[in-house]
Structure formats: C-alpha cells, structure tokens
Design a protein that fits this description.
Number of helices: 15
Helix content: 25-40%
CATH class of the largest domain: Alpha Beta
Largest sheet: 7 strands, mixed
Structural class: alpha/beta
Number of strands: 20
CATH superfamily of the largest domain: Aldehyde Dehydrogenase, Chain A, domain 1
Radius of gyration: 23 Å
CATH topology of the largest domain: Aldehyde Dehydrogenase, Chain A, domain 1
Number of domains: 2
Bound molecules: nicotinamide-adenine-dinucleotide
CATH architecture of the largest domain: 3-Layer(aba) Sandwich
Distance between the termini: 66 Å
C-alpha cells in the first residue's frame, strides 16, 4: 500500500490491543489545513466505546503484566517503542504535518526526535523513582512505596499533538499506569499512528487505548468515569476549569497545562539582534499556536525604534509562509477555518482598540489553506484585548515601557503565568526580574528553551502540575507507607 492509500484509509478505535469500529458507525473528517481537504475519516466514539476503553485499561492495570512487571522490564518496553518510532519516523512526521499544517522540516527535525527523547528519558526513569526507608527505632520498619495511580485519561490539544501527548504518555507508562488517550478532534492521526507503533513494539493489550471523538462527550465521560483515577489535560484554561469541576465528583487526581499570554521583555542593554530573532520566533513558530508564545513583547522606550527595525527584518527574512511540505517553509497554515476566523477577529478588534498595525494583518495569496501573515501591532496598551487574551495565532503586541518596576508589574498583570523571557546584559537585573516574574518558566537571554529534563508548567490560571523532568513523576504515582511492627 502506498502512503497516499494508507493515509486515506478510514481509522478505527484502538481498544484493548484491537482496532474496532464504533457501534454507532459515526465518523468525522480530519482536514489538512493546507488544502482544506479531508485526509480521512475518524471514528466518533460513543459512551459504549469510551467505557470499553476504561474497562480495558482497568483490566490491564489490575490483571495484566504492566503494573506488576519489574520496572526495568517496563523501561525496556518503552525503549523498544522509541526504537519503533525512529524506524517509522518519516511516516509519523508526514502524518503530523498533514494533520496540523506544521512544516514537514519541523516535524522531521523537532517533533519526532523530541518524542523519541521523551520516551527514552522516561524509560530510563522506570526503575529510578522509588520510595524511602524511614528513620524509625528498631521496634518497627517503615518504608514508602511509589505505586502507579492506576487508570489515567490523557486529554490533549491540537497544536503540537505528538509532543504534547508523549510528554504525558511516556512518564505515565514508565510509572506503571494504563492509559486512555483522547486526542483533539482536529488532529487525531498521530495518536492513532502511535497506537500502531505501540502494538508493533509489543506493548501489552489494554495498556494504551485511543478513543477519538468530541471533548464534551468522550472527554466528559472520561473525566466523570468512576473507574478513571487521574486526568492529565493540556488545553484551554476554560476547558481546564470545566474538567476540574467535573473531576471533583470522584476526586480524581488532575494535572492541568493551560493557556498563556507570556511577556517577553527587552531591556535597552540587551542584545537587540538576538532579542529580535527570538521575539520573532516567539510568535511565529507553529503559526503562534503555542502555549508559551511570547505574545506580549515589552520594549524599553529608548531602544524601541532600533529593536522594531530588527524585529520586522527577522520576521520578513526568517519566517516564510508557505506549503508545509516545502523545505523553505517556516510557517504553515493555522489549524482550521474557525481558528483563522478567531485570530482575524482579534486583528480587527486590535485596530478598533487603537493599536498601530505595523506588519501583516492580511492573508498571503494562496488559493487554499488557512494561511495568515505574521502580524505585529505597536503602541499596544496592556489593558487592550490584544494584550490580555490568548490569541493563539501569529499576532504580536508591542508594549513600550520606561522603568524596571513598571514592566514587571505589567508583565505580571495577567491571569496567566505560563512563561516569560527577558534580555539584558546585567545579570543582577536579570536575576531580580526572574525572581519577580510570576511564571513557570523564565528565559534569560533566550526564549522557548525546552528540554525533557527541565520542568515546564503554569502559575496562576495557566494550570498546575508540571511536564518534563523528574517533577512529573510524583504526579503519576501514589505514595504508600508500609509499617512492619517488629
Ligand atoms: P481545548 O481545551 O479546546 O481542547 C483540548 C482537549 O480537550 C481536546 O482533546 C478537546 O476535545 C478536549 N475537551 C474539550 N472540552 C472538553 C471537556 N468538557 N471535557 C473533557 N475534554 C474536553 O484546547 P485546544 O484548542 O485543543 O488547544 C489549545 C489550548 O491549549 C491553548 O489554550 C493553549 O495555550 C493550550 N496549551 C497549553 C499547553 C501547556 O503546556 N500549558 C501546551 C499546549 C497547548
């Protein structure tokens, strides 16, 4: 079968190690945002299939080999999955690009290799995260065990589906949990491809299940299901709040990675050329559809004009909009027509609010696809909608400032707290700012640095819990204390 034939094949649900069709026989199309054409049909799971997936995960957890096996063996299985991902890297990169509109040059060099890193990093942790012996007297022995939480529902967004899923799946598997994954309906294909990979790598049945379908039915069912122990969610803040409320009825453990409106501060003594490069990347990468996008750039007034000249040059030179399959492309289309309308709505609103449009705001001349040119507004007031709401598109707000205290206050004046960045050669000032910024990440003289070992997550309404590194491991385990009376 050629790749074109294979990708057009209607998909099935992956439950208990088997591919099954939904009883309702209902399917929905997943669309290539670069062509506006359906790639294929994906099943719409109903309550029945969602419950089957939960039951399979529960069985695999209680009776299967996964939770009980030697952690080092579990690690080996995850290493094996990483190997199969590498063997099928090209197909996975293509699937991810077609489904999301991300440039293929990025999915090849960034998304798939990062997914492999995540799998290998957490495979290594499988037998390295454990409890302790407690300092009792000799009448007793007390120790703690780190046990898996149980059945974990993983609910993921569309903006970087493969990576955002693997950053949950890899540690959850390593700690011995069994999973039900509900990917976003706009981008379900990499999760289904990953299920194929898990099957080929010999992951035991029922350990990883995929149910596709709408958030308000399939997602809600998972969040309210009494047999699901934990929900690990990445998505919008508003959805996170709904999930938190619904999960309360069964007191599920929850991790929430939510939205952002991250400040990126350019002090006058910073390296302006480098700052401009990263400020451009901060709102153009993945068409601005990134939770940590540096969508508010605060520029010290004395270097405002010089910085802006450099920024606009970098946007024009470094961020070519085009077909995701073309190796020259740096920016593909937005994910959907709805998203495009939403982002252009913000642009219109920005003009009405009195911000000064200095670049873009329009669409490139492609006949098809949800493309939008990178857009920069200057003279934005931090109280404008442009500066307050997560736009999730390639739209940047430039906000001039005069004083250190003023900019820190404005940077923190948001209900989000995901990320932040700053540029200065004065390390005392950098440290002072880093201490005062209320955000889960502070990038000093860089922006968007991420690594499997470095915790990432939100303050305030950007969520709680962390992804990456060692810090995520307690979130997929329960601590049990065992006393032996001698
Ligand atoms: P979304 O909240 O609309 O959807 C995310 C997932 O939740 C999807 O799978 C969706 O089907 C499901 N869902 C929707 N309603 C649900 C409900 N009531 N119950 C259970 N599940 C439900 O988000 P999105 O539009 O897919 O993604 C974009 C958002 O994700 C942005 O706000 C972005 O900042 C955020 N995000 C955050 C991070 C982070 O690490 N903090 C990373 C990437 C994206």
């Amino acid at each position: 079968m050629t790749f074109a034939e294979k990708i057009a094949e209607p998909r099935k649900l992956f439950i208990d190690g088997k591919w099954i069709e939904p009883e309702s026989a209902r399917y929905f199309a997943t669309v290539n945002p670069a062509t506006e054409e359906a790639i294929t049909q994906v099943p719409q799971a109903g309550e029945r299939e969602t419950d089957l997936a939960v039951a399979a995960a529960r069985r695999a957890f209680e009776q299967g080999p996964w939770a009980a096996m030697k952690p080092a063996e579990r690690g080996k299985k995850i290493f094996r999955i990483a190997e199969v991902v590498e063997q099928q890297a090209e197909e996975l990169a293509l699937v991810e690009s077609l489904d999301t509109g991300k440039p293929l040059s990025f999915t090849r060099t960034r998304d798939v290799p990062f997914a492999v890193d995540l799998l290998r990093y957490y495979a290594g942790w499988a037998n390295k995260f454990y409890g302790a012996t407690l300092p009792t007297d000799e009448s007793a022995l007390a120790c703690t065990l780190r046990e898996p939480v149980g059945v974990v529902a993983i609910i993921t967004p569309w903006n970087s589906p493969l990576i955002l899923s693997l950053m949950k799946i890899a540690p959850a598997l390593a700690m011995g949990n069994t999973l039900i994954h509900k990917p976003a309906s706009w981008t379900p294909l990499s999760a289904l491809k990953f299920a194929e990979i898990c099957q080929a790598a010999g992951l035991p049945e029922g350990v990883y299940n995929v149910v596709t379908g709408p958030g308000d039915s399939v997602g809600t069912r998972l969040v309210t299901h009494p047999d699901v122990n934990k929900v690990s969610f990445t998505g919008e803040t508003v959805t996170g709040k709904i999930i938190m409320e619904k999960a309360a009825a069964t007191l599920k453990r929850i991790s929430l990675e939510l939205g952002g409106k991250s400040p990126h501060i350019v002090f006058a003594d910073g390296d302006l050329e480098a700052a401009a490069t990263f400020a451009a990347k901060g709102f153009c990468l993945n068409q601005g559809q990134i939770c940590w996008a540096g969508s508010r750039v605060f520029v010290e007034e004395k270097v405002h004009d010089e910085f802006l000249e450099k920024l606009l040059r970098h946007v024009r030179e470094d961020w070519t909009v085009g077909d995701p399959m073309d190796p020259k492309t740096q920016m593909g289309p937005l994910i959907s027509k709805t998203q495009l309308q939403q982002v252009t709505g913000y642009i219109e609103e920005g003009k009405k609010e009195g911000a000064k449009l200095i670049l873009g705001g329009d669409r490139p001349p492609m006949k098809k696809g949800y493309y939008l040119n990178p857009t920069v507004f200057d003279e934005v007031d931090n109280r404008m909608k442009l500066a307050r709401e997560e736009i999730f598109g390639p739209v940047l707000a430039i906000i001039p400032f005069k004083e250190f205290d003023e900019v820190i206050e404005k940077a923190n004046d948001t209900f989000y707290g995901l990320a932040s960045g700053l540029w200065t050669k004065d390390m005392k000032k950098a440290y002072r700012a880093a201490r005062r910024l209320k955000a889960g990440s502070v990038w000093v003289n860089c922006y968007g640095a991420l690594d499997v070992m470095a915790p990432f997550g939100g303050f305030k309404q950007s969520g709680f819990g962390r992804e990456f590194g060692q810090e995520v491991l307690p979130l997929y385990t329960e601590t049990k204390t065992v006393w032996f009376q001698m």
